[in-house]
Amino acid sequence: MESVKDKIVCITGASSGIGAACAEVFAREGSALILSARRGERLENVARTIRERYRVKVHSMCLDVTRQRDVENVFASLPEEWQAIDILVNNAGLSRGLDKIQEGKIQDWEEMIDTNVKGLLYVSRAVLPGMVQRNRGHVVNIGSIAGRQLYPGGNVYCASKFAVRALNQGMKMDLLGTQVRVSSVDPGLVETEFSEVRFHGDKERAKKVYADMRPLNGDDVAEAILFCATRPPHVNILEVVLVPTAQASVRDVHRTP
Ligand code: NDP
Ligand code: 8X3
């Protein structure tokens, strides 16, 4: 097992859910963290809690991954001690709506594609050259079982996660010959703010997604990410698919009212 102590771990979308759980899990292991998200106050709360609880170094930065110039500038102007990122967790992402494609809202589509696909690309483009130059590093892309199977109304969200899976494979091929590793961690239902965001703040509707079953939580996913990151340098976990025991596929969920 390879230690992640003192490694620099950069997590996008660290203000809630899986990203915040990753911050906690890597801090527990002694990593130094670069945390980013759009909501500055939420991000600061996560950063403060982690500094107090784990006494690790945390650099937090407000960043909207859809803004290419900002992404480029923020990574180019990282203080020197933070530049050599060892592990990048491409986690920032969202779903918007569950409309049939013929009724879909263009704005929702743009937001999903801009964040889940283009945002992931912008951040990777900013971080990967340094990893290649150092011949060291690991990119963990957060995909989804929605990147492997469709469900009604999933259309554009699923397409964006299919794209993440393709990009994960593409990254691995393009980085072949370097020591930079690439993994995709693809969860099923995880109870986070994900569904609340999907349903534009409708908490009741969001709650129903996880009703009468035990979903994964952010920690379950973060531990899978840590597993990928702690394999010996010659081992590259390419894909991890994890679902709740009560879920067999995107459409098969066992609920016990
Ligand atoms: P949350 O809504 O709890 O967290 C999403 C995170 O992404 C937030 O920190 C949010 O921060 C950030 N984010 C969203 N848009 C942007 C942006 N434009 N720029 C920067 N950060 C952004 O949901 P999850 O934790 O569940 O989602 C994390 C990832 O996991 C996503 O990629 C999602 O697709 C994936 N996933 C989730 C599953 C689930 O069932 N929950 C299952 C499979 C995959 P802020 O709003 O502050 O910017
Ligand atoms: C999130 C999982 O099935 O709600 O990626 O789309 S699902």
Structure description:
The chain has 257 residues and is an alpha/beta fold. It has one domain: Rossmann fold. Helices cover 43% and strands 15% of the residues. The protein contains eight helices and seven strands. The chain has a seven-stranded parallel sheet, with helices on both faces. α2 (40-54) links the parallel β2 and β3. It is globular, with a radius of gyration of 17 Å. The site of 2-hydroxyethylsulfonic acid (8X3) has 6 residues, from loops.
Secondary structure: helix percent: 40-55%
Round the Cα radius of gyration to an integer and report it. 17 Å
Write down the CATH topology.
Answer: Rossmann fold
Assign the CATH architecture: 3-Layer(aba) Sandwich
* Small molecules bound in the structure, each named once: NADPH dihydro-nicotinamide-adenine-dinucleotide phosphate, 2-hydroxyethylsulfonic acid
Order of helices and strands: EHEHEHEHEHEHHHE
The tally of structural domains comes to 1
Pick out the low-confidence regions. Answer: none
Count the beta strands: 7
Would you identify the CATH H-level superfamily? Answer: NAD(P)-binding Rossmann-like Domain
Mean of pLDDT: 98
Shape: globular
Judged by helices, strands and strand pairing, the structural class is alpha/beta
Q: Output the strand order for the largest sheet.
A: 3-2-1-4-5-6-7
Please report the distance between the alpha carbons of the first and last residues: 42 Å
What top-tier CATH class fits best?
Alpha Beta
How is the main sheet built?
7 strands, parallel
Beta-strand proportion: 5-15%
The count of helical stretches stands at 8
